[in-house]
Fold:
Amino acid sequence: MPELQELFDNNARWAESIKEEDPSFFEKLAKQQEPEYLWIGCSDARVPANEIVGMLPGDLFVHRNVANVVLHTDLNCLSVIQYAVDVLKVKHILVTGHYGCGGVRAAMQDKQVGLTDAWLRGIRDLHYEHHEELAMLATEEERVDRLCELNAIEQVANVSHTAIVQNAWHRGQKLSIYGCVYGIKDGLWKNLNVTIRGIDQVPAQYRLRKRD
Structure:
């Protein structure tokens, strides 16, 4: 596969640099996976989860999809959350959007993009819900960026509505969900100050009783 040789060469250099710093790093990594964080982010190639927060392999469990959406019908995302919470016992779920998100921008327009239109439906609804607030912003970029923030906040709520997370809280497991956004233009990761740490912060209509 000569077309991939550059990537294999890059990998060899990367692995060697890691071993120079810690000769037993990969040996230890192969024996266990104990991350404290689950990252739910966008698939955008410009948003590399581990690098953004300065973490090595093994420190961050990661799920990525178009526009960092958490749907109650998405078995892929829910399976990741379930494994992270129930098996790995992560303590922090980092829902991270990013400014200038192409998925969010597409949800604000009336153009068709294909199958992704169905995936972005919830963001279209969010755009409509916050239409007046967004209309007050001067430029399209400001409107897109604000909806990126609102979308991350919405997905924090969606994570908290899952039975997986609520059952963890019922059994006394320490688990916090954070809303964050990443700036591609400056490389900075921003806290949106929307954190849910327990079922008492979940609206009553989304709370599930403890299983018998």
In short: The CA atoms of residues 167 and 211 lie 8 Å apart. Strands lie at 37-42, 60-65, 92-98, 176-182, 189-196. The longest helix spans residues 140-160. The first strand starts at residue 37 and ends at 42.
